[in-house]
Amino acid sequence: MTPLLENAVKVATRDSRYDILIQPGLLATPAAWAGLPHAGGATQAVIVSNPTVAALYEAPLRQALAPHYAQVSTVLLPDGEAHKDWQSLNLVFDHLLARGCDRQTVLFALGGGVVGDMTGFAAASYMRGVPFVQVPTTLLAQVDSSVGGKTAINHPLGKNMIGAFYQPARVVCDLATLATLPPRELSAGLAEVIKYGPIADMAFFGWIESNLPALLARDPAALAHAVKRSCEIKAWVVGQDERESGLRAILNFGHTFGHAIEAGLGYGEWLHGEAVGCGMVMAASLSADLGLVDPAFAQRLQALIAAAGLPTAAPAMPASRWLDLMRLDKKASAGEIRFVLIEGPGQATVRPAPDALVSRVIERHSLPPAPAAAAGGTAGA
Ligand code: NAD
Ligand code: GLY
Questions:
Q1: Is the pLDDT of residue 381 over 60?
Q2: Centre of ligand 2 from the C-alpha of residue 57, in Å
Q3: Catalytic: which of 159, 170, 259, 330?
Q4: 3-181 is classed CATH 3.40.50.1820
Q5: At a CB cut-off of 8 Å and minimum separation 6, what does 190 contact?
Q6: CA 198-179-115 angle, 5° bins
Q7: 10 labelled catalytic
Q8: Superfamily designation of domain 192-365
Protein backbone atom coordinates (compact mmCIF):
# COMPACT_ATOMS: atom_id res chain seq x y z
CA MET A 1 0.00 0.00 0.00
CA THR A 2 1.35 3.47 -0.87
CA PRO A 3 1.95 5.88 2.06
CA LEU A 4 -0.85 8.05 0.64
CA LEU A 5 -3.39 5.23 1.06
CA GLU A 6 -1.91 4.13 4.38
CA ASN A 7 -2.57 7.60 5.81
CA ALA A 8 -6.04 7.88 4.31
CA VAL A 9 -9.13 8.04 6.52
CA LYS A 10 -11.29 5.04 5.59
CA VAL A 11 -15.05 5.13 5.21
CA ALA A 12 -16.84 1.79 5.32
CA THR A 13 -20.61 1.52 4.96
CA ARG A 14 -22.64 -1.62 4.29
CA ASP A 15 -22.24 -1.30 0.52
CA SER A 16 -19.20 0.90 -0.03
CA ARG A 17 -15.65 1.50 1.05
CA TYR A 18 -13.56 4.51 0.11
CA ASP A 19 -10.57 6.58 1.09
CA ILE A 20 -10.38 10.21 2.16
CA LEU A 21 -6.96 11.49 1.09
CA ILE A 22 -5.81 14.54 3.08
CA GLN A 23 -2.60 16.35 2.18
CA PRO A 24 -1.41 19.60 0.62
CA GLY A 25 -0.60 19.33 -3.09
CA LEU A 26 -2.81 16.35 -3.97
CA LEU A 27 -4.04 17.94 -7.23
CA ALA A 28 -0.49 17.53 -8.52
CA THR A 29 0.17 14.14 -6.90
CA PRO A 30 -0.30 11.35 -9.49
CA ALA A 31 -0.95 8.66 -6.83
CA ALA A 32 -4.07 10.53 -5.69
CA TRP A 33 -5.68 9.91 -9.08
CA ALA A 34 -4.63 6.32 -9.73
CA GLY A 35 -7.00 3.39 -9.35
CA LEU A 36 -10.27 5.28 -9.79
CA PRO A 37 -13.35 3.64 -11.37
CA HIS A 38 -13.35 3.04 -15.15
CA ALA A 39 -9.85 4.48 -15.62
CA GLY A 40 -7.85 3.32 -18.59
CA GLY A 41 -10.60 2.66 -21.17
CA ALA A 42 -12.43 4.82 -23.68
CA THR A 43 -14.14 6.54 -20.81
CA GLN A 44 -15.05 10.11 -20.01
CA ALA A 45 -14.26 12.16 -16.92
CA VAL A 46 -16.51 15.16 -16.33
CA ILE A 47 -15.42 17.89 -13.93
CA VAL A 48 -18.33 19.74 -12.30
CA SER A 49 -17.33 23.07 -10.80
CA ASN A 50 -18.18 26.77 -10.77
CA PRO A 51 -16.38 29.73 -12.39
CA THR A 52 -14.69 30.83 -9.14
CA VAL A 53 -13.13 27.47 -8.35
CA ALA A 54 -12.49 26.44 -11.95
CA ALA A 55 -10.39 29.56 -12.52
CA LEU A 56 -8.12 28.39 -9.70
CA TYR A 57 -8.04 24.59 -9.89
CA GLU A 58 -9.59 23.21 -13.08
CA ALA A 59 -6.28 23.16 -15.02
CA PRO A 60 -4.35 21.02 -12.49
CA LEU A 61 -7.30 18.65 -12.11
CA ARG A 62 -7.58 18.20 -15.89
CA GLN A 63 -3.85 17.48 -16.02
CA ALA A 64 -4.19 14.90 -13.24
CA LEU A 65 -7.08 13.11 -14.98
CA ALA A 66 -5.74 13.21 -18.56
CA PRO A 67 -3.56 10.06 -18.25
CA HIS A 68 -6.54 8.02 -16.99
CA TYR A 69 -9.53 8.99 -19.13
CA ALA A 70 -9.97 9.23 -22.91
CA GLN A 71 -11.81 12.56 -22.62
CA VAL A 72 -11.95 15.13 -19.86
CA SER A 73 -14.58 17.88 -20.06
CA THR A 74 -15.94 20.49 -17.65
CA VAL A 75 -19.39 21.80 -16.85
CA LEU A 76 -19.65 25.01 -14.84
CA LEU A 77 -22.60 25.75 -12.56
CA PRO A 78 -23.42 29.23 -11.29
CA ASP A 79 -21.69 29.90 -7.97
CA GLY A 80 -23.60 30.04 -4.70
CA GLU A 81 -26.20 28.45 -2.45
CA ALA A 82 -28.98 30.32 -4.28
CA HIS A 83 -28.18 28.15 -7.33
CA LYS A 84 -28.36 24.77 -5.58
CA ASP A 85 -31.51 23.96 -7.53
CA TRP A 86 -33.10 22.05 -10.41
CA GLN A 87 -31.92 24.50 -13.08
CA SER A 88 -28.28 24.07 -12.11
CA LEU A 89 -28.64 20.32 -11.77
CA ASN A 90 -30.08 20.17 -15.27
CA LEU A 91 -26.96 21.85 -16.64
CA VAL A 92 -25.03 18.73 -15.57
CA PHE A 93 -27.52 16.39 -17.26
CA ASP A 94 -27.54 18.58 -20.42
CA HIS A 95 -23.74 18.35 -20.57
CA LEU A 96 -23.63 14.58 -19.99
CA LEU A 97 -26.27 13.87 -22.62
CA ALA A 98 -24.85 16.28 -25.20
CA ARG A 99 -21.46 14.55 -24.90
CA GLY A 100 -22.94 11.07 -25.15
CA CYS A 101 -21.71 10.13 -21.69
CA ASP A 102 -22.40 6.49 -20.83
CA ARG A 103 -22.50 4.56 -17.56
CA GLN A 104 -18.70 4.38 -17.45
CA THR A 105 -18.48 8.16 -17.09
CA VAL A 106 -17.00 9.42 -13.82
CA LEU A 107 -17.97 12.81 -12.35
CA PHE A 108 -15.49 14.91 -10.35
CA ALA A 109 -16.96 17.51 -7.95
CA LEU A 110 -14.42 20.33 -7.80
CA GLY A 111 -15.55 22.96 -5.30
CA GLY A 112 -17.33 23.48 -2.00
CA GLY A 113 -20.36 21.79 -0.57
CA VAL A 114 -22.76 23.29 -3.10
CA VAL A 115 -20.91 21.77 -6.07
CA GLY A 116 -20.29 18.56 -4.11
CA ASP A 117 -23.93 18.02 -3.10
CA MET A 118 -25.19 18.74 -6.63
CA THR A 119 -22.57 16.60 -8.38
CA GLY A 120 -23.35 13.73 -6.03
CA PHE A 121 -27.06 14.01 -6.77
CA ALA A 122 -26.38 14.18 -10.52
CA ALA A 123 -24.15 11.08 -10.24
CA ALA A 124 -26.82 9.25 -8.22
CA SER A 125 -29.46 9.87 -10.86
CA TYR A 126 -27.71 9.97 -14.25
CA MET A 127 -28.48 6.64 -15.93
CA ARG A 128 -29.52 5.50 -12.42
CA GLY A 129 -26.02 5.94 -11.10
CA VAL A 130 -22.47 6.66 -12.26
CA PRO A 131 -19.39 6.92 -10.00
CA PHE A 132 -18.23 10.25 -8.66
CA VAL A 133 -15.20 11.61 -6.83
CA GLN A 134 -15.27 14.49 -4.35
CA VAL A 135 -12.50 17.08 -4.72
CA PRO A 136 -13.51 19.51 -1.94
CA THR A 137 -11.90 22.95 -1.96
CA THR A 138 -13.56 24.63 1.05
CA LEU A 139 -12.84 23.81 4.68
CA LEU A 140 -16.52 23.02 5.17
CA ALA A 141 -16.53 20.55 2.29
CA GLN A 142 -13.26 18.91 3.42
CA VAL A 143 -14.45 18.36 7.00
CA ASP A 144 -18.07 17.50 6.33
CA SER A 145 -20.03 17.67 3.09
CA SER A 146 -17.71 15.61 0.85
CA VAL A 147 -17.85 12.66 3.24
CA GLY A 148 -20.81 10.39 3.91
CA GLY A 149 -22.85 10.45 0.72
CA LYS A 150 -25.61 12.96 1.47
CA THR A 151 -26.40 14.62 -1.86
CA ALA A 152 -29.15 17.15 -2.49
CA ILE A 153 -30.57 20.34 -3.91
CA ASN A 154 -32.65 22.91 -2.04
CA HIS A 155 -36.37 23.61 -2.44
CA PRO A 156 -37.64 27.17 -1.81
CA LEU A 157 -39.59 25.75 1.15
CA GLY A 158 -36.76 23.75 2.70
CA LYS A 159 -33.04 23.10 2.66
CA ASN A 160 -31.62 19.94 1.01
CA MET A 161 -35.15 18.56 0.59
CA ILE A 162 -34.59 16.72 -2.69
CA GLY A 163 -31.68 14.32 -2.77
CA ALA A 164 -30.25 10.85 -2.30
CA PHE A 165 -27.72 8.92 -0.25
CA TYR A 166 -24.93 8.11 -2.68
CA GLN A 167 -21.33 7.55 -1.65
CA PRO A 168 -18.34 8.88 -3.61
CA ALA A 169 -15.61 6.56 -4.89
CA ARG A 170 -12.91 8.68 -3.23
CA VAL A 171 -12.48 12.04 -1.50
CA VAL A 172 -9.37 14.03 -2.37
CA CYS A 173 -8.76 16.91 0.07
CA ASP A 174 -5.92 19.02 -1.26
CA LEU A 175 -5.21 21.21 1.76
CA ALA A 176 -3.32 23.70 -0.41
CA THR A 177 -6.62 24.82 -1.97
CA LEU A 178 -7.60 26.35 1.39
CA ALA A 179 -5.01 29.10 0.82
CA THR A 180 -7.35 30.92 -1.58
CA LEU A 181 -10.50 30.60 0.52
CA PRO A 182 -12.00 33.96 1.61
CA PRO A 183 -11.79 34.47 5.43
CA ARG A 184 -15.58 34.42 5.81
CA GLU A 185 -15.67 30.96 4.17
CA LEU A 186 -12.86 29.73 6.43
CA SER A 187 -14.91 30.74 9.49
CA ALA A 188 -17.97 29.03 8.03
CA GLY A 189 -15.94 25.81 7.72
CA LEU A 190 -14.77 26.14 11.32
CA ALA A 191 -18.39 25.92 12.45
CA GLU A 192 -18.58 22.33 11.20
CA VAL A 193 -15.17 21.56 12.75
CA ILE A 194 -16.33 22.91 16.13
CA LYS A 195 -19.51 20.83 15.81
CA TYR A 196 -17.61 17.56 16.25
CA GLY A 197 -16.51 18.53 19.78
CA PRO A 198 -19.85 18.81 21.63
CA ILE A 199 -21.34 15.79 19.82
CA ALA A 200 -18.41 13.38 19.98
CA ASP A 201 -14.98 14.46 21.18
CA MET A 202 -14.33 17.02 23.90
CA ALA A 203 -10.56 16.49 23.68
CA PHE A 204 -10.83 17.73 20.08
CA PHE A 205 -12.97 20.65 21.30
CA GLY A 206 -10.21 21.63 23.73
CA TRP A 207 -7.66 21.31 20.95
CA ILE A 208 -9.73 23.68 18.75
CA GLU A 209 -9.96 26.21 21.61
CA SER A 210 -6.17 26.15 22.02
CA ASN A 211 -5.40 26.17 18.30
CA LEU A 212 -8.02 28.62 17.01
CA PRO A 213 -5.46 31.37 16.26
CA ALA A 214 -3.39 28.85 14.25
CA LEU A 215 -6.48 27.66 12.37
CA LEU A 216 -7.52 31.22 11.54
CA ALA A 217 -3.95 31.93 10.39
CA ARG A 218 -4.19 28.77 8.16
CA ASP A 219 -1.26 27.07 9.81
CA PRO A 220 -0.80 23.94 7.64
CA ALA A 221 -0.29 21.51 10.53
CA ALA A 222 -3.33 22.85 12.41
CA LEU A 223 -5.55 22.64 9.32
CA ALA A 224 -4.30 19.11 8.55
CA HIS A 225 -5.20 17.93 12.06
CA ALA A 226 -8.59 19.67 12.00
CA VAL A 227 -9.54 18.09 8.65
CA LYS A 228 -8.25 14.63 9.58
CA ARG A 229 -9.91 14.45 13.02
CA SER A 230 -13.20 15.80 11.61
CA CYS A 231 -13.17 13.20 8.84
CA GLU A 232 -12.34 10.42 11.31
CA ILE A 233 -15.35 11.33 13.47
CA LYS A 234 -17.64 11.67 10.46
CA ALA A 235 -16.42 8.35 9.00
CA TRP A 236 -17.03 6.66 12.38
CA VAL A 237 -20.62 7.97 12.51
CA VAL A 238 -21.46 7.26 8.86
CA GLY A 239 -19.97 3.76 9.13
CA GLN A 240 -22.53 2.94 11.80
CA ASP A 241 -25.57 4.73 10.38
CA GLU A 242 -25.25 5.64 6.70
CA ARG A 243 -28.95 6.47 6.18
CA GLU A 244 -29.58 8.40 9.40
CA SER A 245 -31.88 5.96 11.10
CA GLY A 246 -30.40 7.01 14.44
CA LEU A 247 -26.86 8.03 15.36
CA ARG A 248 -26.11 10.05 12.20
CA ALA A 249 -28.64 12.69 13.25
CA ILE A 250 -26.06 13.99 15.78
CA LEU A 251 -24.15 15.43 12.82
CA ASN A 252 -27.06 17.83 12.50
CA PHE A 253 -26.29 19.62 15.77
CA GLY A 254 -27.23 23.27 15.19
CA HIS A 255 -28.82 22.48 11.82
CA THR A 256 -32.51 22.62 12.80
CA PHE A 257 -32.16 26.27 13.82
CA GLY A 258 -29.54 26.84 11.10
CA HIS A 259 -31.62 25.52 8.21
CA ALA A 260 -34.50 27.75 9.37
CA ILE A 261 -32.18 30.77 9.18
CA GLU A 262 -31.03 29.81 5.67
CA ALA A 263 -34.51 29.16 4.30
CA GLY A 264 -36.09 32.04 6.23
CA LEU A 265 -33.65 34.67 4.98
CA GLY A 266 -33.33 33.23 1.47
CA TYR A 267 -30.50 30.89 0.49
CA GLY A 268 -27.09 32.52 0.37
CA GLU A 269 -27.87 35.45 2.65
CA TRP A 270 -26.08 33.74 5.52
CA LEU A 271 -23.47 31.09 4.69
CA HIS A 272 -24.42 27.56 5.69
CA GLY A 273 -21.60 27.42 8.26
CA GLU A 274 -22.66 30.75 9.75
CA ALA A 275 -26.22 29.51 10.18
CA VAL A 276 -24.95 26.27 11.75
CA GLY A 277 -22.67 28.21 14.11
CA CYS A 278 -25.53 30.36 15.36
CA GLY A 279 -27.80 27.28 15.38
CA MET A 280 -25.37 25.49 17.70
CA VAL A 281 -25.49 28.43 20.13
CA MET A 282 -29.30 28.14 20.15
CA ALA A 283 -29.35 24.34 20.44
CA ALA A 284 -26.86 24.42 23.33
CA SER A 285 -28.95 27.10 25.04
CA LEU A 286 -32.05 24.93 24.61
CA SER A 287 -30.13 21.97 26.05
CA ALA A 288 -29.26 24.05 29.09
CA ASP A 289 -32.87 25.25 29.49
CA LEU A 290 -34.00 21.62 29.42
CA GLY A 291 -31.53 20.84 32.21
CA LEU A 292 -29.45 18.53 30.01
CA VAL A 293 -26.18 20.42 30.20
CA ASP A 294 -24.57 23.02 32.45
CA PRO A 295 -25.26 26.57 31.16
CA ALA A 296 -21.50 27.16 31.54
CA PHE A 297 -20.93 24.67 28.72
CA ALA A 298 -23.35 26.53 26.43
CA GLN A 299 -21.46 29.75 27.19
CA ARG A 300 -18.10 28.08 26.49
CA LEU A 301 -19.38 26.90 23.11
CA GLN A 302 -20.78 30.34 22.29
CA ALA A 303 -17.41 31.95 23.13
CA LEU A 304 -15.58 29.60 20.74
CA ILE A 305 -18.10 30.20 17.94
CA ALA A 306 -17.76 33.97 18.35
CA ALA A 307 -13.94 33.71 18.43
CA ALA A 308 -14.07 31.76 15.15
CA GLY A 309 -15.64 34.84 13.53
CA LEU A 310 -19.16 33.44 13.36
CA PRO A 311 -22.44 35.19 14.21
CA THR A 312 -24.01 34.16 17.52
CA ALA A 313 -27.23 36.20 17.24
CA ALA A 314 -29.93 35.07 14.82
CA PRO A 315 -31.75 37.36 12.39
CA ALA A 316 -35.09 38.68 13.60
CA MET A 317 -38.00 36.45 12.49
CA PRO A 318 -41.35 35.91 14.23
CA ALA A 319 -41.28 32.77 16.42
CA SER A 320 -44.19 31.34 14.41
CA ARG A 321 -42.08 31.57 11.22
CA TRP A 322 -39.18 29.79 12.93
CA LEU A 323 -41.46 27.00 14.10
CA ASP A 324 -43.10 26.60 10.67
CA LEU A 325 -39.69 26.35 9.01
CA MET A 326 -38.37 23.90 11.60
CA ARG A 327 -41.42 21.64 11.24
CA LEU A 328 -40.17 20.98 7.69
CA ASP A 329 -36.83 19.72 9.05
CA LYS A 330 -36.08 16.14 7.97
CA LYS A 331 -35.81 15.00 11.60
CA ALA A 332 -39.36 16.19 12.35
CA SER A 333 -41.89 13.46 12.82
CA ALA A 334 -45.70 13.91 12.61
CA GLY A 335 -45.25 17.68 12.84
CA GLU A 336 -43.10 17.42 16.00
CA ILE A 337 -39.73 19.17 15.73
CA ARG A 338 -36.80 17.08 17.02
CA PHE A 339 -33.60 18.85 18.02
CA VAL A 340 -30.06 17.59 18.36
CA LEU A 341 -29.29 18.53 21.96
CA ILE A 342 -26.24 18.20 24.16
CA GLU A 343 -26.79 16.02 27.21
CA GLY A 344 -23.25 16.29 28.49
CA PRO A 345 -20.09 17.64 26.87
CA GLY A 346 -19.19 15.31 23.99
CA GLN A 347 -22.57 13.59 24.02
CA ALA A 348 -25.60 14.38 21.85
CA THR A 349 -29.19 13.22 21.88
CA VAL A 350 -32.19 13.85 19.61
CA ARG A 351 -35.38 15.01 21.33
CA PRO A 352 -38.47 17.19 20.94
CA ALA A 353 -38.84 20.34 23.06
CA PRO A 354 -41.91 22.36 24.05
CA ASP A 355 -42.67 25.21 21.61
CA ALA A 356 -42.76 27.72 24.49
CA LEU A 357 -39.20 26.85 25.50
CA VAL A 358 -37.99 26.94 21.91
CA SER A 359 -39.62 30.36 21.44
CA ARG A 360 -37.82 31.62 24.54
CA VAL A 361 -34.47 30.48 23.15
CA ILE A 362 -35.25 32.15 19.83
CA GLU A 363 -36.08 35.40 21.58
CA ARG A 364 -32.94 35.24 23.74
CA HIS A 365 -30.62 34.66 20.78
CA SER A 366 -32.17 36.86 18.09
CA LEU A 367 -31.26 40.34 16.97
CA PRO A 368 -33.98 42.94 17.60
CA PRO A 369 -36.27 43.53 14.62
CA ALA A 370 -35.08 46.29 12.28
CA PRO A 371 -36.77 49.64 13.03
CA ALA A 372 -39.82 50.31 10.84
CA ALA A 373 -39.09 52.38 7.72
CA ALA A 374 -39.45 56.11 8.41
CA ALA A 375 -42.64 57.77 7.18
CA GLY A 376 -42.23 58.83 3.55
CA GLY A 377 -39.52 56.19 3.13
CA THR A 378 -39.37 53.37 0.63
CA ALA A 379 -41.65 50.86 2.32
CA GLY A 380 -42.83 48.31 -0.19
CA ALA A 381 -40.00 49.01 -2.62
P1 NAD B 1 -19.92 26.75 -1.27
O2 NAD B 1 -19.88 25.47 -1.96
O3 NAD B 1 -20.94 27.74 -1.69
O4 NAD B 1 -18.48 27.42 -1.35
C5 NAD B 1 -18.27 28.64 -0.72
C6 NAD B 1 -17.69 29.70 -1.67
O7 NAD B 1 -16.29 29.50 -1.76
C8 NAD B 1 -18.20 29.64 -3.08
O9 NAD B 1 -18.36 30.96 -3.57
C10 NAD B 1 -17.10 28.93 -3.84
O11 NAD B 1 -17.05 29.26 -5.20
C12 NAD B 1 -15.88 29.43 -3.13
N13 NAD B 1 -14.72 28.55 -3.13
C14 NAD B 1 -14.69 27.23 -3.02
N15 NAD B 1 -13.45 26.78 -2.89
C16 NAD B 1 -12.65 27.86 -2.97
C17 NAD B 1 -11.25 28.05 -2.88
N18 NAD B 1 -10.43 27.03 -2.64
N19 NAD B 1 -10.76 29.29 -3.03
C20 NAD B 1 -11.60 30.35 -3.20
N21 NAD B 1 -12.93 30.24 -3.25
C22 NAD B 1 -13.45 29.00 -3.13
O23 NAD B 1 -20.14 26.55 0.32
P24 NAD B 1 -19.62 25.44 1.34
O25 NAD B 1 -19.59 26.12 2.64
O26 NAD B 1 -18.42 24.75 0.85
O27 NAD B 1 -20.79 24.36 1.32
C28 NAD B 1 -22.07 24.67 1.81
C29 NAD B 1 -23.04 23.63 1.29
O30 NAD B 1 -22.68 22.35 1.79
C31 NAD B 1 -24.47 23.87 1.70
O32 NAD B 1 -25.30 23.76 0.59
C33 NAD B 1 -24.75 22.76 2.69
O34 NAD B 1 -26.09 22.38 2.69
C35 NAD B 1 -23.86 21.68 2.18
N36 NAD B 1 -23.51 20.67 3.19
C37 NAD B 1 -23.69 19.37 2.88
C38 NAD B 1 -23.33 18.39 3.78
C39 NAD B 1 -23.45 16.95 3.40
O40 NAD B 1 -23.29 16.09 4.26
N41 NAD B 1 -23.71 16.64 2.14
C42 NAD B 1 -22.78 18.74 5.01
C43 NAD B 1 -22.59 20.10 5.29
C44 NAD B 1 -22.96 21.06 4.37
N1 GLY C 1 -23.83 16.99 7.64
C2 GLY C 1 -24.75 16.06 8.18
C3 GLY C 1 -24.57 14.67 7.72
O4 GLY C 1 -23.73 14.38 6.91
O5 GLY C 1 -25.27 13.80 8.14
A1: no
A2: 26
A3: 259
A4: no
A5: 139, 208, 212, 215, 216, 273, 277, 308, 309, 310
A6: 70
A7: no
A8: Dehydroquinate synthase-like - alpha domain (1.20.1090.10)
Are 3-181 and 192-365 in the same CATH fold? no
77 lines ligand 1 (CB under 6 A): no
Query: How does strand 158-165 pair with strand 150-155?
Result: antiparallel
Percent of the chain that is helix, strand, coil (3-state, to 5): 50, 20, 30
Break the chain into its structural domains and give their ranges: 3-181, 192-365
User: Which residue's CA is minimally distant from atom 2 of ligand 2?
Assistant: 251
> DSSP of 329-362, one letter per residue?
STT-BTTB-EEEEEEETTEEEEEE--HHHHHHHH
Q: How far, in Å, is the centroid of ligand 1 from the Cα of 114?
A: 5
User: pLDDT tens for residues 44-58?
Assistant: 999 999 999 999 999
Q: How far apart are CA 292 and CA 201, in angstroms?
A: 17
Measured between alpha carbons, how far is 292 from 367 in angstroms, rounded to an integer?
25
Q: Is 349 left (phi over 0), alpha (psi -120 to 50) or beta?
A: beta
For a mutational test of ligand 1's pocket, the pick from 145, 151, 166, 267, i.e. the residue with the most ligand atoms closer than 8 A to its C-beta, is: 145
Gyration radius of the chain over CA positions: 21
**What would the DSSP string read from start to end of 43-70?**
-EEEEEE-HHHHHHHHHHHHHHHTTT-S
Residue 143 in contact with residue 193, Cβ under 8 Å? Answer: yes
Q: Which ligand is nearest to the CA of 199?
A: 2
Proximal ligand: closest to the CA of 173: 1
Q: Which atom of ligand 1 is nearest to the CA of 189?
A: 25
Residue-wise pLDDT tens digits, 194-209: 999 999 999 999 999 9
Which pLDDT score, from 0 to 100, does residue 380 have? 30
* Cβ–ligand 2 contact at 107 (below 6 Å): no
Report pLDDT digits (tens) over 308-360.
999 999 999 999 999 999 998 888 888 899 999 999 999 999 999 999 999 99
Cα 145 to middle of ligand 2, angstroms: 7
Classify residue 83 by burial, with Cβ atoms within 10 Å: 0-12, 13-18, 19+: buried
Instruction: Find out whether the beta carbon of 140 lies less than 6 Å from any atom of ligand 1.
Output: yes
State how far the Cα of 87 lies from the Cα of 320, in Å rounded to an integer: 31
